[in-house]
């Protein structure tokens, strides 16, 4: 077979759930008939699980063995090491103050630390300037995600704004915030919005409420969502 001993990489695989093609069935066929490795990755972990139907006995991929790798947030120490090693490989000397500022702003999010390192190595832009760019980019990407919810997009955006305005937003605070701007929202509709936002990776649920874990996204929602 042409794919034998090959590695197939599918990035942002959760987007395939919108297709009319049953990609989970294709992957299951690969497992059974083709000697190839498959790497499936995605930034929206909850939606990725939905697409793969992980744990569903009726899903085509149920029972197939796999290895899961999760990339969490780096600690401040690991963030410093990550940036310093990256700059070293690029032959760029940077001061502690610049690295510390970047570590503080991007709060261990690997993607944004990489974005800062790449941008600084090309243009020498300061961490604050790169953070503003990252915030606009994060807001634009989030808006694109919300477009999939059609006329409900305003509710989703308002939920994000309310959560971004708090360190940990409780259910009651979110409901009051949304209803103050958009009118009454049924509890089941709000529950569905929160579940979808968690699955999309835009928010996370903690012990005391909901929060936006990505600092660039949080800043972007607060300052670049005015058009929604």
Automatic annotation (TrEMBL):
Q: Please name the InterPro entries in this protein's record.
A: P-loop_NTPase, WH-like_DNA-bd_sf, WH_DNA-bd_sf, WHD_MCM_arc
> Which Pfam families does this chain map to?
WHD_MCM
User: Domain MCM C-terminal: where?
Assistant: 151-207
| Protein name per the record | MCM C-terminal domain-containing protein
Its taxonomic placement starts with: Archaea, Candidatus Marsarchaeota, Candidatus Marsarchaeota group 2
């Amino acid at each position: 077979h042409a794919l034998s001993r090959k590695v197939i990489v599918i990035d942002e695989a959760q987007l395939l759930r919108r297709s009319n093609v049953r990609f989970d069935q294709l992957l299951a066929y690969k497992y059974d008939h083709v000697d190839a490795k498959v790497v499936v990755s995605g930034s929206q972990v909850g939606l990725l699980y939905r697409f793969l139907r992980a744990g569903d006995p009726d899903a085509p991929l149920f029972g197939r063995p796999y290895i899961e790798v999760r990339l969490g947030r780096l600690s401040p120490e690991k963030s410093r090491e990550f940036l310093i090693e990256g700059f070293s490989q690029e032959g760029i000397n940077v001061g502690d103050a610049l690295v510390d500022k970047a570590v503080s702003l991007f709060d261990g999010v690997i993607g944004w630390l990489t974005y800062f390192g790449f941008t600084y190595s090309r243009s020498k832009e300061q961490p604050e300037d790169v953070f503003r760019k990252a915030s606009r980019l994060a807001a634009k990407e989030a808006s694109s995600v919300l477009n999939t919810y059609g006329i409900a997009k305003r509710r989703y955006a308002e939920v994000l704004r309310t959560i971004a305005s708090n360190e940990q937003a409780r259910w009651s605070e979110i409901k009051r915030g949304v209803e103050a701007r958009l009118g009454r929202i049924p509890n089941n509709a709000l529950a569905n919005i929160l579940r979808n936002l968690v699955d999309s990776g835009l928010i996370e649920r903690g012990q005391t409420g909901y929060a936006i874990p990505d600092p660039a996204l949080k800043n972007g929602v607060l300052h670049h969502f005015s058009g929604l």
